[in-house]
Amino acid sequence: MMRFLRTVLQLILLLFVIGALAIIVVGTVMPLVPVPAVIVPATPDLASRGAYLFYHVSACVTCHSTRDQTLLSGPVVPGTEGGGGDAFNESAGVPGTIYGRNLTPAALLPWSDGEIARAITAGVGRHGNALFPLMPYQHYASATQKDVSALIAYLRSLKPIENVVPPRNLTFPMNLIVNLIPKAAHPEPVQPVVGTPEYGAYLVNLGACLHCHSIDHHGDIPPGMQFAGGRTFAIDGGTVRSSNLTSDKETGLGAWTKERFISAFAAFRQPTATIPVKPGEFNTPMPWSEYAGMTDTDLGAIFDYLHALPAVRNQVVKFSPTR
Ligand code: HEC
Ligand code: HEC
To answer: Hey, what long-range contacts does 126-131 have (CB within 8 A, 24 or more apart)?
Structure first.
């Protein structure tokens, strides 16, 4: 009997030690993604492609600046571009609080090009820390090497903004789980031809449209619900839900023409698109004002790609006001 008890106790102790070791490894050693060997030439062509991605396709600027939520679609406050500081918490599905980091040279100057590339495409920070995947690095993982370099070239050219962003605070167990998510990037070897639906798919991925336009079930999209909309966003005045972007004729974009699609974005190109939103009224987290800067050709390619998606019937109520 005593022997049996001793064996049980030894087993419990062993499990405890293994558990403690696992927590130490996951908490301090993980994630293990090497810094890629990237050296970015500061050419104007590269930086201008980077600016296009930064403002209009990936709209990095929306999360890494201050947004003015008193205006429709929350455009970026001029002068804050890339300076970081906006907080994301439970209402954005984050267990804790994280902040868009400062990406201007005031913060990234000591980083190597490889370290920035690893953060963008593998979600690992300068000191080997894992980034919370609200930062859409899992999408950027398949960006071409050239586009990643373009982003870095542009970040290097941003006006430095001295803004010290607070450290993040993730609650247990996410503070450990987050370390298990990053993996090395898998860049597309060649960029699809501009104007084709394949290029549309490439842009949709870099725009991380899927993330907002699908319902979320504990971090996963239920099978068959990709792009079918319905993800909820809490805003001041109530709840906003993302639209169904699949080709369903009644509940999605199936009945839309390419012209209608492009004009929906183009409407935000006009200076008159600065539309004030009163408290309690509809506003949208979709960064229309930023996407509006995409060319008609690129928006058209996005439309062709979305229009070829299998139809999913899912009626979404866009806005439910609290009052
Ligand atoms: C949906 C919001 C969002 C978008 C879009 C986004 N980011 Fe981020 N990014 C974040 C957040 C939040 C963090 C901090 C994550 C954390 O602390 O765990 C971050 C972290 C980073 C970091 C690490 C900086 C540091 O100091 O550790 C880099 C570099 C970065 N982002 C670059 C980009 C680039 C380049 C793009 C566009 C291609 C982009 N981000 C788009 C939200 C976003
Ligand atoms: C931050 C979340 C977010 C991102 C990212 C996002 N959307 Fe949206 N989108 C929404 C929400 C919420 C709505 C519904 C409210 C509105 O109309 O603005 C919406 C509406 C739309 C509509 C209007 C459809 C209709 O029926 O009126 C289109 C088209 C659209 N999104 C396309 C896209 C594309 C293409 C991308 C990627 C380039 C994208 N969205 C990225 C949140 C997002």
So the answer is: 128/31, 130/30, 130/31, 130/178, 130/179, 130/181, 130/182, 131/178, 131/182
